[in-house]
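REVIEWER CHECKLIST
Item 1: Sequence provided? yes
Item 2: Single chain? yes
Item 3: Sequence as submitted:
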Amino acid sequence: MSRIEDEARHLETLDRDLGRFSTLENAAAYAARPMVAPGIALVFILLAGLIAGLTIGLSGNSLIVIIAAVFGAYMALNIGANDVANNMGPAVGANALTMGGAIAIAAIFESAGALIAGGDVVSTIAKGIVAPEAMATPETFMWAMMAALLSSALWVNLATWIGAPVSTTHSVVGGVMGAGIASAGLGVVNWSMMTTIAASWVISPLLGGLIAVAFLWFIKARIIYQPDKIAAARVWVPVLVGIMAGVFSAYLVLKGLKQLIHVSMGVSLLTGLVIGIVTWAVMIPVIRRQSAGLENRNKSLKVLFGIPLIVSAALLSFAHGANDVANAVGPLAAIVATAQSGALTDAVGIPTWVMLIGAFGISFGLFLFGPKLIRMVGNQITKLNPMRAYCVALSAALTVIVASWLGLPVSSTHIAVGGVFGVGFFREWDTERRLRQAREAMPDNPPLPPEERRRRKLVRRSHFLTIIAAWVITVPAAALLSALLFLVIDFIAG
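Item 4: Structure as written out by the authors:
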């Protein structure tokens, strides 16, 4: 009997030991999980350097190109982690897309935009910020571009870590400016261009917010606040979808496909008008079928905006990939061209392998690190539903067209986030207005205490202040970091 008891005790001890090993294994897996994404990112960065080395071959400047390719891959990862959230955040926040679906769609369309329409020629000195001929030597120019690339990537990485969507274009501009000043003095910078970029800090979010608010007000007035919401939706949703199709068509022709087909503003607007009218006509029977049997309440309206919102997110991603891939690979392409020719140049063709690094880097960055900023833009600034998210997406495309027509510099990041803020603040104002009307109708009801009024704020002020602060300091922070990095690189190389 005692033998049986001893065996039972041994088995019990063994179970406890196995349980400890299992717990230890789970703990090790949990501890290692945060390292998986950085590990995959590191492998991609090393592969980019390897591809650069194999492509450019052995030459005097091959090491410079390999290091630059590593920096470019790092920047592309950060663009995917930070910038793409502006396109996908509203659709995820409105529950029109799951996080996995958003990442899949964005990865496909970002890569397609970068590879199909990413541009044969890019101004490698960040849109006229500094003049290459002002640099003393081709080597100095390459050091400056490397410092700009690394500093902008580090700044975007920091912004992603603190949860602030920033403009990657402004980060690159700040990096180029700082390296240019450190290498050739204040006179190398095009200060009139810098003034217009500073103006865009105000113009972009204000335009995005105002246009988003205008569409949300229209939807509320014409559909949501109507006695028969479904009947109103049958009239106006086809119109709104037609506007969306027309605006996005003009947006893609003007901005996303400008490297494939060069067209004027008039042609792009006419293209948008035709596609918008056709879409409106097609959507009338579609919306009539979709709305059949729906209850007369706000929740039913969300069904009608789901597909347009997903399509808009995909189109925004395509245009973003077509345009912002240059932020990752423009300086890299400049370094490659200078290293191969030994001469300074204003604009260069981007080799295919460089474009691949940019395209796949953006997709990897989105997949590995993007969910944090997608949640921030989609859920944590203000609550979005398909109607509000639709207004944000539409304002992003429409603002770019208006700004291009007026010749104003704008940031797609600032526009999209400004649209989210605009929708949230408009909801606060509209809620307050209706409460005031209710109190006027029933004057005996006591006013809400200050604590309750603060609790009902629909925009998180902490996120608002963090994002605004990050926007304001992006250019100077990237410039200062770039100047320091250039001095370090120049010292090491010298």
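Item 5: Key structural point noted by reviewer: Confidence is low (pLDDT under 50) at residues 27-32, 120-126.
Item 6: Recommendation: ____
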